[in-house]
Amino acid sequence: MRRGKQPPIPVFIIALCCAGLITCASNSTKKQHKKTEIHMTDPPRQNDEAQKLARELKRKGISDERVLTAIGNIPRHSFIDEQLSAYAYQDRPLPIESGQTISQPFTVAWQTELLQLKPGEKVLEIGTGSGYQAAVLCEMEAEVYSIERYYNLYQTAKETLNKLGYYPNLFFGDGFEGLPEHAPFDKILITAAPEKIPEKLLQQLRVGGWMVVPLGGRTGQKMTVIRRISDNEFKESEHGDFIFVPMQKGTSE
Ligand code: SAH
Question: Which domain holds residue 154?
Answer without folding.
Answer: 9-16+30-242
